[in-house]
Each structure stands twice: as C-alpha cells, then as structure tokens.
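Usage example:
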Amino acid sequence: MTNAYQQTDTILHVENVSVVYGAKTIIENISFTEKNTVRPNAQQGQTIAFLGRSGRGKSTLFRVITGLEKPTSGRILIPDYNKPINETGQPAKPVAEGDVGFVNQRYTLFRHKTVYQALMFALRKSTDSEAEKQNKVLQYLADWGLEKVKNQYPNELSGGQRQRTAILEQLLSSGYYMVLDEPFSGLDVGNIESVKKAFHLITSSHELNTIVFSTHDIELAVELADSIYVMGYASSPNDDLKQVGTIVGHFDLKAMNLSWAGTFDARHAECAKAIKAAMLAS
Amino acid sequence: MLKQVKAFFRPFERVSSRQRLAAVGLWVGILLLWWVLSALGTRHIFPSPAQVWQGLANLFNEGLIVHIFSSLGLATQAIAISLLFSLLVVYLSPLPALKPLALFLSKCRYLPLTGITFYLAILVKDARTMQVSVLTVFMSLYFITSLLAVLKDIPTDEIDHARSLKCSRWEVLWEVVIKGRLDYVIDVLRQNLAIVWMMLVTVESILVAAGGLGVLIKNSDKFMNHGRIVALQLVILLLGLLLDWGLQTLRKGLFRYSTF
Ligand SMILES: Nc1ncnc2c1ncn2[C@@H]1O[C@H](COP(=O)(O)OP(=O)(O)O)[C@@H](O)[C@H]1O
Ligand SMILES: [Mg+2]
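Running the assembly step on the lines above writes:
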C-alpha cells in the first residue's frame, strides 16, 4: 500500500520503507503518517511510541527516520520549514542527517567534551551571540539538574546524567524531532520520572516538537504516547512467521480519547492489554 | 599463617596492600639472593654488585651521560617524524582512496630490518641521518598498525552521534577520530616505545659513528667486562621505564577522561 504525501498538517511521513542488509530483509513495507496534534487550550507536541519484541526492527527503523541510514527503498519526509507555506501547505523534504535528534540506547556522548562543552558544541550552528548561547546552556543545565556536573566528562557521569545530557544535546542541535531508542531501559524509578518530565518539557515547549521513542514498558507507552505503533514480524501467506519486521498495529490514543488524561485508568489498561496481545501474536 | 599463604595462591584473591608489598619484597629478596649466590666464587655466572657498580663508573668515564642524551635526541627526532607521518596516513585512512595505502604500509612491518637498512645505506651517507631514517621507517610502520587498530575500535555509535549533531564527515573525523582519540595516540606511542627503544639501541650499534647507548653496547664486546654490560643493561632498562612512566603520566595529566 502506498500513502501519498499530503502537505496539510503532516509532520512525519514514512512511505514504503524497507531495509535490506545483504540478503537479509530487516524491515519492509513500513508506511505511516503522523499529523500535527492539536489539543484545545494547550500547547502540545506529539509523542509517538514504538512497541515490539526484540529484533522486530525498531532500532533499524529509527536509524532510517533519523537519516543515519538510507532505506533500501521508500522515503521519509518531514516539513521543510525553511520554505514558505504555499496553497497546499508546508512543502516537504526528505529527512537528512541532523534534522532529527537521535539518542541511542547507550546515550553516546563525545568522550572528550564536558557536559557544558558538549551543549555549546550542539549550539555551534546557531546564529545567537556567544553570550546568548552561554545563557541558554546555563539555563538548560539548571532546568535539567545538570548544573553541578557541567564540567564533568561523560565517564564521570551517572547513567541518568548521561542520558539527560544526550537528550539536551539533541534538543539544542536538531529541529523539532527527537528519536529516543529505549530511553527508559536500565533506569531507576527516579530517573524514569525525570525522563517523563523531560518529555513533557519538550512537547509542551513547542507545538511542533515531536518525540518518537521505543520501550518495552507497554503501560508507560500508553501513559505517555498519543500514537502507538506495534512492530512485529509480518505473517507470510502460509501463516509461518516471516522474520521481517513491519508495523502490525496502530493505536491512535487521541482518537481513543486516552491521550493527556494525566491518569492511568481502566481504559488505559484495556488498551495496554490489546497492545500486548498484538505484540505476542507477532 | 597457613591461611594467608594459601590466599597468595588462590586465583583472583584480593590481598591487603601489606600482603602485596610482602609479595614484592619476597621476589626482590629472591633476586638479591640469586645475585649474591651467582656472584660467589671466582668463576661467575653473573657479576657481583660491586662489579656492576664498577662497570657503571667505567661507563660514566666513557661519557655515559653524553651518550644517553645522544640516544634520547635520536629517539625524539625519529619519533616526531614518524608520528607525524603515521598520523597523517592514519587520519586520512577513512578516505576510501587512501585506505589501501595505510593498510599496505601496516603490512610492511614484516619487512626485515637489514634489507631496509642496506637499501637506505645506498641513499644516505651521513651516519646520523641514516639512523634517523632507519628508525623513522620502522617506527612509522608500527605506529600506523597500532593507530589503525585504534581507529577500527571506534564504535559506530560515536560516529553516528556526531552525525546526528549535524557534523559533516570532516567534522566527524576531526571531533571523533582526531580530538576524541588524542590520548590514544600517546598510549600508542607508549605501547610501541619498547620496540622503538630496542631498535634504537640496535641501530646505534650498527652505525657507531653517531654515538649513543648502542655504541656503549658495541664497545662492551671489546672489554668483555660483565659488570659493565649488566650496568648498561640496567641503565637502558631504567631509561625505558622512565619514558614509559612519563608518557603515562602525560596522558593522564592532559586528558582527565582518559581512564584506561
Ligand atoms: N547492521 C546489521 N546487519 C545485519 N543485521 C542487522 C544489523 N542491524 C540489525 N540487524 C538485525 O536486524 C534485526 C532487527 O534489529 P533491531 O532493529 O535492533 O530490532 P529491535 O530494536 O526491535 O530489537 C535483528 O535481527 C538484527 O540482528
Ligand atoms: Mg533496539
């Protein structure tokens, strides 16, 4: 199935993406379109979650969305905000390296830059004055609880501090998009809360800010996301499970009226159960 | 007591610093005992401490200090040239066009020293230049090999991280490979220092005209003085260890994040 790009309100358009390494197809036929979320009386970016068992190609898809990996076929389009809006809406462009921030599972940072140096580096292309950049970085460091460690190197940081630095770096450098591969794995309860807070900080600070993340915690995804995609192996006609990842389910939590509830109630639990069933079947 | 002795022979056992010191002391004791025993009698296996001391004094009179500085000067000169050359080759090896050159040079480390020396001797007449060129050629091959291994060990994650921050390919090279691995360059130098040090003395003893510790070794043949030979070996060993320690300290001092 192909889905033609429609300019109106589209923020992320993934069309027929497949990735093949050598003879092995990792993911195929991945298509979806995310529209700008509108929430009455509030500034609201979008939060998109990808769920799926290990090896279903979540990380591979993320590398494609971030422009780090060229898909074997298909394309990823995002709005080109450098161009003026025309009668059909915001013109689109193929995603390029750096357009979409990426925080990988290991929170990789520059080993030779302190937190402060890393954040200043992330701002190096900004047209702000040096003083403005410094103020901005110092403000972020204070907001994100990194003030005390600003002169430390990555090997001197805790896991949570590294992760926050990695997120901040991408936030300062990239446009509206941020992809996080399993940002909740291996964190203690305190750090999970601070990542959740960071998500809210990001999505509430700009209408177009978009977070894409993967997790193994279904309840957490239901709580945080307003759109959930389930990745699994595509069933082949003779009903064997083909070991190629694709999207096997989409849960639009806005349409289900589950987004932004602020609570996790029985209906959220119901949704989580349906997602779990979809994951187990693929 | 028996329990403590047993602990010394259990793999991965943690012992207190006093026990560690005791283990070192034990070995030093064994060494000294062996030295004294082997120096007993008239026909020695090993020169006595007094003979070594005497040898050291002889070396001083032969101009040990001058020779040490000559050797260090030669080492510094050769290291500087070969390191610059190796870094250039290795830093450009991520370019597909230059990769084969780097790999080829690395393979050349299996060439025999004598062949190269022979060939260089045709080209260069002056002894000092000759020494520098032989050392430079050989050290470069080892440096290139080790530096290529450092590059190969850089995780793709780090390169992708830089790319995700809008780094151009050249910026990735500069930030991740060059700036991000400067401390490794010092360590590569340190790791290869032993080979360099050994080659240095050998090269000096082949071409005696330019002086250096190698000349003193060469002269030992003439004297057949055991004490002198051992004293010289010790001097060369200690100098090498000192350089090793200096480089290690330099790396840790310059790069706080360099904790390996
Ligand atoms: N560079 C690669 N070359 C070959 N196979 C790969 C490569 N990267 C990932 N894979 C394979 O692709 C599949 C999907 O991996 P991944 O995208 O990491 O899944 P997930 O993130 O959902 O666990 C796995 O079977 C993995 O072995
Ligand atoms: Mg993964």
